[in-house]
Protein backbone atom coordinates (compact mmCIF):
# COMPACT_ATOMS: atom_id res chain seq x y z
CA UNK A 1 0.00 0.00 0.00
CA UNK A 2 1.25 3.33 -1.06
CA UNK A 3 1.16 5.45 2.10
CA UNK A 4 2.13 8.57 0.20
CA UNK A 5 -1.09 8.64 -1.81
CA UNK A 6 -3.10 7.90 1.30
CA UNK A 7 -1.50 10.83 3.18
CA UNK A 8 -2.23 13.26 0.32
CA UNK A 9 -5.86 12.19 0.28
CA UNK A 10 -6.18 12.68 4.04
CA UNK A 11 -4.67 16.20 3.66
CA UNK A 12 -7.08 17.22 0.91
CA UNK A 13 -10.08 16.01 2.91
CA UNK A 14 -8.93 18.00 5.92
CA UNK A 15 -8.54 21.17 3.82
CA UNK A 16 -12.02 20.77 2.39
CA UNK A 17 -13.62 20.19 5.80
CA UNK A 18 -11.99 23.17 7.54
CA UNK A 19 -12.56 25.49 4.54
CA UNK A 20 -16.26 24.65 4.49
CA UNK A 21 -16.59 25.52 8.13
CA UNK A 22 -15.36 29.09 7.47
CA UNK A 23 -17.43 29.48 4.32
CA UNK A 24 -20.72 28.50 5.93
CA UNK A 25 -20.22 30.03 9.36
CA UNK A 26 -23.42 31.77 10.64
CA UNK A 27 -23.70 35.56 10.65
CA UNK A 28 -23.60 37.25 13.98
CA UNK A 29 -26.56 39.45 14.87
CA UNK A 30 -26.17 43.07 13.71
CA UNK A 31 -23.43 42.27 11.21
CA UNK A 32 -24.12 42.81 7.50
CA UNK A 33 -22.16 42.38 4.35
CA UNK A 34 -22.48 46.10 3.58
CA UNK A 35 -19.80 48.52 4.47
CA UNK A 36 -20.52 51.08 7.14
CA UNK A 37 -22.25 54.17 5.74
CA UNK A 38 -19.34 56.50 6.46
CA UNK A 39 -16.93 54.09 4.81
CA UNK A 40 -19.16 53.74 1.75
CA UNK A 41 -19.47 57.47 1.41
CA UNK A 42 -15.74 57.96 1.75
CA UNK A 43 -15.15 55.40 -0.95
CA UNK A 44 -17.77 57.02 -3.18
CA UNK A 45 -16.16 60.40 -2.72
CA UNK A 46 -12.79 58.96 -3.71
CA UNK A 47 -14.17 57.22 -6.82
CA UNK A 48 -16.65 59.91 -7.83
CA UNK A 49 -19.68 57.56 -7.72
CA UNK A 50 -23.12 58.31 -6.29
CA UNK A 51 -24.25 56.69 -3.08
CA UNK A 52 -27.86 55.70 -2.61
CA UNK A 53 -29.46 56.17 0.76
CA UNK A 54 -30.85 53.05 2.48
CA UNK A 55 -34.43 54.01 1.52
CA UNK A 56 -33.40 54.46 -2.12
CA UNK A 57 -31.54 51.09 -2.11
CA UNK A 58 -34.61 49.45 -0.68
CA UNK A 59 -36.82 51.05 -3.31
CA UNK A 60 -34.41 50.00 -6.04
CA UNK A 61 -34.84 46.39 -5.03
CA UNK A 62 -38.59 46.57 -4.57
CA UNK A 63 -41.51 48.80 -5.44
CA UNK A 64 -40.57 52.18 -6.86
CA UNK A 65 -41.65 55.06 -4.66
CA UNK A 66 -42.06 58.77 -5.54
CA UNK A 67 -41.82 61.91 -3.50
CA UNK A 68 -45.28 63.35 -2.68
CA UNK A 69 -46.11 66.32 -4.92
CA UNK A 70 -46.28 69.70 -3.21
CA UNK A 71 -49.72 71.37 -3.47
CA UNK A 72 -49.84 74.03 -6.20
CA UNK A 73 -49.21 77.55 -4.97
CA UNK A 74 -52.40 79.58 -4.72
CA UNK A 75 -52.70 82.36 -7.29
CA UNK A 76 -52.61 85.85 -5.76
CA UNK A 77 -56.10 87.19 -5.22
CA UNK A 78 -57.15 89.90 -7.64
CA UNK A 79 -57.80 93.26 -5.97
CA UNK A 80 -61.45 93.74 -5.18
CA UNK A 81 -63.00 96.34 -7.48
CA UNK A 82 -64.82 99.25 -5.94
CA UNK A 83 -68.43 100.04 -6.78
CA UNK A 84 -68.81 103.82 -6.98
CA UNK A 85 -72.21 105.41 -6.30
CA UNK A 86 -74.25 106.50 -9.35
CA UNK A 87 -74.19 110.09 -10.54
CA UNK A 88 -77.83 110.72 -9.69
CA UNK A 89 -78.18 112.62 -6.44
CA UNK A 90 -74.48 113.28 -5.93
CA UNK A 91 -74.83 117.06 -5.74
CA UNK A 92 -77.68 116.70 -3.26
CA UNK A 93 -75.53 114.45 -1.08
CA UNK A 94 -72.74 117.04 -1.19
CA UNK A 95 -75.06 119.98 -0.54
CA UNK A 96 -73.90 120.58 3.02
CA UNK A 97 -70.29 120.86 1.89
CA UNK A 98 -71.30 123.28 -0.85
CA UNK A 99 -73.36 125.37 1.58
CA UNK A 100 -70.40 125.76 3.94
CA UNK A 101 -68.07 126.94 1.19
CA UNK A 102 -70.49 129.37 -0.41
CA UNK A 103 -72.16 130.78 2.71
CA UNK A 104 -70.13 134.00 2.56
CA UNK A 105 -71.46 134.63 -0.93
CA UNK A 106 -75.12 133.68 -0.43
CA UNK A 107 -75.70 134.75 3.13
CA UNK A 108 -73.89 138.04 2.53
CA UNK A 109 -76.30 138.91 -0.26
CA UNK A 110 -79.33 137.89 1.79
CA UNK A 111 -78.32 140.07 4.75
CA UNK A 112 -77.74 143.09 2.49
CA UNK A 113 -81.10 142.69 0.73
CA UNK A 114 -82.93 142.26 4.03
CA UNK A 115 -81.62 145.59 5.41
CA UNK A 116 -84.24 148.14 6.46
CA UNK A 117 -82.90 150.74 4.06
CA UNK A 118 -81.76 149.92 0.51
CA UNK A 119 -80.23 153.16 -0.74
CA UNK A 120 -77.66 153.59 -3.49
CA UNK A 121 -74.80 152.73 -1.16
CA UNK A 122 -76.53 149.46 -0.19
CA UNK A 123 -77.03 148.51 -3.83
CA UNK A 124 -73.41 149.34 -4.60
CA UNK A 125 -72.37 147.03 -1.77
CA UNK A 126 -74.55 144.25 -3.18
CA UNK A 127 -72.92 144.72 -6.57
CA UNK A 128 -69.44 144.67 -5.03
CA UNK A 129 -70.28 141.40 -3.25
CA UNK A 130 -71.27 139.84 -6.56
CA UNK A 131 -68.10 141.04 -8.28
CA UNK A 132 -65.95 139.76 -5.41
CA UNK A 133 -67.54 136.35 -5.93
CA UNK A 134 -66.33 136.42 -9.57
CA UNK A 135 -69.81 136.87 -11.04
CA UNK A 136 -68.34 139.42 -13.44
CA UNK A 137 -68.97 143.15 -13.77
CA UNK A 138 -71.62 142.91 -16.48
CA UNK A 139 -73.59 140.12 -14.82
CA UNK A 140 -73.33 141.79 -11.41
CA UNK A 141 -74.79 145.05 -12.80
CA UNK A 142 -77.68 143.18 -14.44
CA UNK A 143 -78.51 141.23 -11.30
CA UNK A 144 -78.58 144.42 -9.21
CA UNK A 145 -80.81 146.24 -11.72
CA UNK A 146 -83.27 143.34 -11.80
CA UNK A 147 -83.36 143.10 -8.01
CA UNK A 148 -83.97 146.83 -7.60
CA UNK A 149 -86.91 146.58 -9.99
CA UNK A 150 -88.41 143.62 -8.12
CA UNK A 151 -88.05 145.36 -4.75
CA UNK A 152 -89.90 148.42 -6.09
CA UNK A 153 -92.67 146.31 -7.61
CA UNK A 154 -93.24 143.99 -4.64
CA UNK A 155 -92.78 146.59 -1.93
CA UNK A 156 -92.48 144.65 1.33
CA UNK A 157 -89.37 142.53 1.88
CA UNK A 158 -89.83 139.69 4.31
CA UNK A 159 -86.88 137.28 4.64
CA UNK A 160 -88.78 134.73 2.57
CA UNK A 161 -89.53 137.25 -0.18
CA UNK A 162 -85.91 138.44 -0.29
CA UNK A 163 -84.65 134.88 -0.56
CA UNK A 164 -87.13 134.00 -3.32
CA UNK A 165 -86.17 137.08 -5.34
CA UNK A 166 -82.44 136.41 -5.04
CA UNK A 167 -82.89 132.71 -5.77
CA UNK A 168 -84.83 133.36 -8.95
CA UNK A 169 -82.29 135.94 -10.14
CA UNK A 170 -79.25 133.72 -9.57
CA UNK A 171 -80.85 130.69 -11.22
CA UNK A 172 -81.81 132.79 -14.23
CA UNK A 173 -78.21 133.98 -14.68
CA UNK A 174 -76.80 130.48 -14.29
CA UNK A 175 -79.29 129.50 -17.01
CA UNK A 176 -81.04 126.23 -16.14
CA UNK A 177 -81.90 125.67 -19.81
CA UNK A 178 -78.32 124.97 -20.89
CA UNK A 179 -77.56 121.37 -21.80
CA UNK A 180 -75.40 120.06 -18.95
CA UNK A 181 -75.40 116.40 -19.87
CA UNK A 182 -71.99 114.82 -20.51
CA UNK A 183 -72.22 112.85 -23.76
CA UNK A 184 -70.82 109.45 -22.87
CA UNK A 185 -73.13 107.12 -24.81
CA UNK A 186 -71.47 105.03 -27.57
CA UNK A 187 -72.63 105.61 -31.12
CA UNK A 188 -72.90 102.48 -33.22
CA UNK A 189 -69.73 100.44 -32.88
CA UNK A 190 -67.76 103.47 -31.70
CA UNK A 191 -67.28 104.55 -28.10
CA UNK A 192 -67.97 108.06 -26.92
CA UNK A 193 -64.71 110.02 -26.59
CA UNK A 194 -64.18 112.61 -23.86
CA UNK A 195 -61.06 114.79 -23.84
CA UNK A 196 -59.99 116.43 -20.58
CA UNK A 197 -57.96 119.62 -21.01
CA UNK A 198 -56.62 122.33 -18.71
CA UNK A 199 -53.50 123.83 -17.22
CA UNK A 200 -51.32 122.21 -14.57
CA UNK A 201 -52.63 122.29 -11.03
CA UNK A 202 -56.35 122.45 -11.76
CA UNK A 203 -56.94 118.79 -10.89
CA UNK A 204 -57.16 117.58 -14.48
CA UNK A 205 -55.82 114.02 -14.03
CA UNK A 206 -57.77 113.60 -10.80
CA UNK A 207 -60.92 114.76 -12.60
CA UNK A 208 -60.28 112.16 -15.31
CA UNK A 209 -60.11 109.41 -12.69
CA UNK A 210 -63.16 110.68 -10.84
CA UNK A 211 -65.17 110.91 -14.06
CA UNK A 212 -64.31 107.27 -14.76
CA UNK A 213 -65.79 106.43 -11.35
CA UNK A 214 -68.95 108.40 -12.14
CA UNK A 215 -69.43 106.47 -15.38
CA UNK A 216 -68.66 103.06 -13.85
CA UNK A 217 -71.14 103.89 -11.10
CA UNK A 218 -73.72 104.45 -13.84
CA UNK A 219 -72.94 101.05 -15.35
CA UNK A 220 -70.65 102.16 -18.19
CA UNK A 221 -67.46 100.50 -19.39
CA UNK A 222 -64.46 102.83 -19.66
CA UNK A 223 -60.95 102.97 -21.16
CA UNK A 224 -58.54 105.69 -20.00
CA UNK A 225 -55.88 107.26 -22.21
CA UNK A 226 -52.80 108.67 -20.42
CA UNK A 227 -51.90 111.24 -23.07
CA UNK A 228 -50.07 113.48 -20.58
CA UNK A 229 -46.73 111.99 -21.61
CA UNK A 230 -44.67 114.89 -20.27
CA UNK A 231 -45.30 113.82 -16.69
CA UNK A 232 -44.78 110.15 -15.86
CA UNK A 233 -46.57 110.58 -12.54
CA UNK A 234 -49.76 111.47 -14.43
CA UNK A 235 -49.91 108.03 -16.06
CA UNK A 236 -49.13 106.32 -12.75
CA UNK A 237 -51.85 108.33 -11.06
CA UNK A 238 -54.32 107.44 -13.78
CA UNK A 239 -53.52 103.73 -13.45
CA UNK A 240 -54.30 103.94 -9.75
CA UNK A 241 -57.70 105.45 -10.51
CA UNK A 242 -58.42 102.96 -13.27
CA UNK A 243 -57.33 99.97 -11.19
CA UNK A 244 -59.89 100.77 -8.51
CA UNK A 245 -62.83 100.39 -10.90
CA UNK A 246 -61.43 98.00 -13.50
CA UNK A 247 -60.83 100.57 -16.24
CA UNK A 248 -57.75 99.74 -18.38
CA UNK A 249 -55.23 102.54 -18.97
CA UNK A 250 -53.40 103.00 -22.27
CA UNK A 251 -50.00 104.61 -21.75
CA UNK A 252 -46.56 104.92 -23.36
CA UNK A 253 -43.10 105.93 -22.29
CA UNK A 254 -42.49 109.42 -21.00
CA UNK A 255 -42.04 111.85 -23.88
CA UNK A 256 -44.07 109.80 -26.38
CA UNK A 257 -46.38 111.52 -28.85
CA UNK A 258 -49.59 112.38 -26.94
CA UNK A 259 -51.67 112.08 -30.11
CA UNK A 260 -50.53 108.48 -30.62
CA UNK A 261 -51.49 107.57 -27.06
CA UNK A 262 -54.94 109.11 -27.52
CA UNK A 263 -55.38 107.27 -30.84
CA UNK A 264 -54.38 103.93 -29.28
CA UNK A 265 -56.79 104.47 -26.40
CA UNK A 266 -59.67 105.04 -28.79
CA UNK A 267 -58.60 102.04 -30.88
CA UNK A 268 -58.66 99.89 -27.73
CA UNK A 269 -62.11 101.23 -26.94
CA UNK A 270 -63.33 100.26 -30.40
CA UNK A 271 -61.81 96.76 -30.19
CA UNK A 272 -63.21 96.10 -26.70
CA UNK A 273 -66.62 97.63 -27.50
CA UNK A 274 -66.50 99.89 -24.45
CA UNK A 275 -68.95 102.72 -23.88
CA UNK A 276 -66.58 105.62 -23.22
CA UNK A 277 -62.92 106.54 -23.72
CA UNK A 278 -61.58 109.36 -21.54
CA UNK A 279 -58.33 110.97 -22.67
CA UNK A 280 -56.26 112.93 -20.16
CA UNK A 281 -54.06 115.48 -21.94
CA UNK A 282 -51.00 117.35 -20.72
CA UNK A 283 -51.41 120.39 -18.48
CA UNK A 284 -50.77 122.98 -21.10
CA UNK A 285 -49.75 126.50 -20.16
CA UNK A 286 -52.20 128.82 -21.84
CA UNK A 287 -49.33 131.15 -22.81
CA UNK A 288 -47.54 128.48 -24.90
CA UNK A 289 -48.93 128.63 -28.44
CA UNK A 290 -47.07 125.48 -29.53
CA UNK A 291 -48.62 123.40 -26.78
CA UNK A 292 -52.07 124.70 -27.62
CA UNK A 293 -51.49 123.72 -31.26
CA UNK A 294 -50.53 120.25 -30.08
CA UNK A 295 -53.85 119.99 -28.26
CA UNK A 296 -55.60 120.60 -31.56
CA UNK A 297 -53.46 117.87 -33.12
CA UNK A 298 -54.54 115.35 -30.49
CA UNK A 299 -58.17 116.08 -31.30
CA UNK A 300 -57.63 115.78 -35.06
CA UNK A 301 -55.77 112.46 -34.74
CA UNK A 302 -58.45 110.98 -32.48
CA UNK A 303 -61.16 111.98 -34.95
CA UNK A 304 -59.55 109.69 -37.54
CA UNK A 305 -60.79 106.81 -35.39
CA UNK A 306 -63.91 108.21 -33.73
CA UNK A 307 -65.58 111.53 -33.20
CA UNK A 308 -64.79 113.52 -30.06
CA UNK A 309 -68.04 113.92 -28.16
CA UNK A 310 -66.85 116.15 -25.31
CA UNK A 311 -63.92 118.47 -24.65
CA UNK A 312 -64.13 119.34 -20.98
CA UNK A 313 -62.03 122.21 -19.67
CA UNK A 314 -61.02 121.81 -16.03
CA UNK A 315 -60.91 125.13 -14.16
CA UNK A 316 -59.85 125.80 -10.58
CA UNK A 317 -62.62 127.78 -8.86
CA UNK A 318 -60.04 129.50 -6.66
CA UNK A 319 -58.19 131.11 -9.58
CA UNK A 320 -60.92 133.66 -10.35
CA UNK A 321 -60.14 135.95 -13.27
CA UNK A 322 -57.04 133.95 -14.17
CA UNK A 323 -59.32 130.98 -14.74
CA UNK A 324 -61.36 133.07 -17.15
CA UNK A 325 -58.26 133.95 -19.17
CA UNK A 326 -57.41 130.25 -19.37
CA UNK A 327 -60.92 129.47 -20.57
CA UNK A 328 -60.74 132.00 -23.38
CA UNK A 329 -57.42 130.70 -24.73
CA UNK A 330 -58.54 127.08 -24.63
CA UNK A 331 -61.79 127.98 -26.35
CA UNK A 332 -59.75 129.47 -29.21
CA UNK A 333 -57.56 126.36 -29.54
CA UNK A 334 -60.23 123.68 -29.41
CA UNK A 335 -64.00 123.54 -29.32
CA UNK A 336 -64.78 123.42 -25.59
CA UNK A 337 -68.12 121.72 -24.88
CA UNK A 338 -68.24 121.99 -21.11
CA UNK A 339 -66.55 123.18 -17.93
CA UNK A 340 -65.50 121.15 -14.90
CA UNK A 341 -65.13 123.49 -11.94
CA UNK A 342 -62.88 121.97 -9.28
CA UNK A 343 -62.13 123.00 -5.68
CA UNK A 344 -65.52 124.65 -5.39
CA UNK A 345 -65.69 123.50 -1.77
CA UNK A 346 -62.72 125.64 -0.79
CA UNK A 347 -63.80 129.03 -2.13
CA UNK A 348 -66.61 131.57 -1.88
CA UNK A 349 -66.12 132.50 -5.54
CA UNK A 350 -68.82 130.30 -7.03
CA UNK A 351 -69.97 133.23 -9.13
CA UNK A 352 -67.40 132.20 -11.75
CA UNK A 353 -70.06 129.75 -12.93
CA UNK A 354 -72.14 132.68 -14.16
CA UNK A 355 -69.19 134.50 -15.72
CA UNK A 356 -67.66 131.60 -17.63
CA UNK A 357 -70.99 130.57 -19.07
CA UNK A 358 -71.84 134.11 -20.10
CA UNK A 359 -68.54 134.80 -21.85
CA UNK A 360 -68.03 131.42 -23.53
CA UNK A 361 -71.57 130.20 -23.98
CA UNK A 362 -70.37 126.90 -22.48
CA UNK A 363 -72.17 125.24 -19.56
CA UNK A 364 -70.62 124.11 -16.31
CA UNK A 365 -71.31 120.38 -16.42
CA UNK A 366 -69.42 118.98 -13.44
CA UNK A 367 -68.20 120.37 -10.12
CA UNK A 368 -65.57 119.07 -7.72
CA UNK A 369 -66.54 119.46 -4.09
CA UNK A 370 -63.71 117.79 -2.19
CA UNK A 371 -60.73 115.47 -2.31
CA UNK A 372 -62.66 112.21 -1.92
CA UNK A 373 -62.88 109.79 -4.87
CA UNK A 374 -66.62 110.39 -5.29
CA UNK A 375 -66.71 114.16 -4.79
CA UNK A 376 -67.25 114.94 -8.48
CA UNK A 377 -70.91 115.67 -9.22
CA UNK A 378 -73.07 116.71 -12.17
CA UNK A 379 -73.89 120.40 -11.81
CA UNK A 380 -77.50 121.44 -11.21
CA UNK A 381 -78.29 125.19 -11.01
CA UNK A 382 -81.22 124.93 -8.61
CA UNK A 383 -79.44 122.62 -6.19
CA UNK A 384 -76.40 124.92 -6.27
CA UNK A 385 -78.39 128.09 -5.54
CA UNK A 386 -80.47 126.42 -2.81
CA UNK A 387 -77.25 125.27 -1.15
CA UNK A 388 -75.60 128.69 -1.08
CA UNK A 389 -78.78 130.36 0.21
CA UNK A 390 -79.45 127.69 2.82
CA UNK A 391 -79.83 128.84 6.42
CA UNK A 392 -79.44 125.31 7.86
Automatic annotation (TrEMBL):
State the superkingdom: Bacteria
GO function terms (MF aspect): GTP binding; GTPase activity; signal recognition particle binding
Which region ranges are annotated with the description Disordered? 31-87
Signal peptide limits: none
InterPro entries in UniProt: AAA+_ATPase (IPR003593), P-loop_NTPase (IPR027417), Signal_recog_particl_SRP54_hlx (IPR013822), SR_rcpt_FtsY (IPR004390), SRP/SRP_N (IPR036225), SRP54_GTPase_dom (IPR000897), SRP54_N_sf (IPR042101)
Question: How does the record classify its membrane topology?
Answer: Peripheral membrane protein
Keyword Plastid in annotation:
no
Question: Which key words are in the record?
Answer: Cell membrane, Cytoplasm, GTP-binding, Hydrolase, Membrane, Nucleotide-binding, Receptor, Transmembrane, Transmembrane helix
Reactions that this protein is recorded to catalyse: GTP + H2O = GDP + phosphate + H(+)
Q: Which GO terms describe its biological process?
A: SRP-dependent cotranslational protein targeting to membrane
Which positions fall inside the SRP54-type proteins GTP-binding domain? 363-376
Q: Which Pfam families match?
A: SRP54, SRP54_N
Query: Transmembrane ranges?
Result: 6-24
What are the binding positions for GTP in this chain? 198-205, 280-284, 342-345
| Top EC group | hydrolase
Residue spans of biased composition, Basic and acidic residues class: 31-44
Q: What is its EC number?
A: 3.6.5.4
Q: Which GO terms describe its cellular component?
A: cytoplasm; plasma membrane
Q: What is its main location?
A: membrane
Q: Could you tell me which PANTHER family the record lists for this protein?
A: SIGNAL RECOGNITION PARTICLE RECEPTOR SUBUNIT ALPHA
Subunit structure as annotated in this protein's UniProt entry = Part of the signal recognition particle protein translocation system, which is composed of SRP and FtsY.
Function noted in UniProt: Involved in targeting and insertion of nascent membrane proteins into the cytoplasmic membrane. Acts as a receptor for the complex formed by the signal recognition particle (SRP) and the ribosome-nascent chain (RNC).
Return the protein name. Signal recognition particle receptor FtsY
Amino acid sequence: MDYTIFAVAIFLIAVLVFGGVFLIRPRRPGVTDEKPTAEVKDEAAATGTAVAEPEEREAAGGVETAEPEAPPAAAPAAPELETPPPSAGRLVRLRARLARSQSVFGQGLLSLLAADKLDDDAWDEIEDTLITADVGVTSAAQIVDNLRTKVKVHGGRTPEEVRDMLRAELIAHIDPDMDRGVRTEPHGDRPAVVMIVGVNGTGKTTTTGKLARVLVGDGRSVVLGAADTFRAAAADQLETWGGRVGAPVIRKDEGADPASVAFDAVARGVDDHVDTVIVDTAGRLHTKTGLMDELGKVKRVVEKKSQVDEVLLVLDATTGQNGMRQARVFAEAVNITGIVLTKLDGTAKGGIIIQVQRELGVPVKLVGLGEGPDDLAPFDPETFVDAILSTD
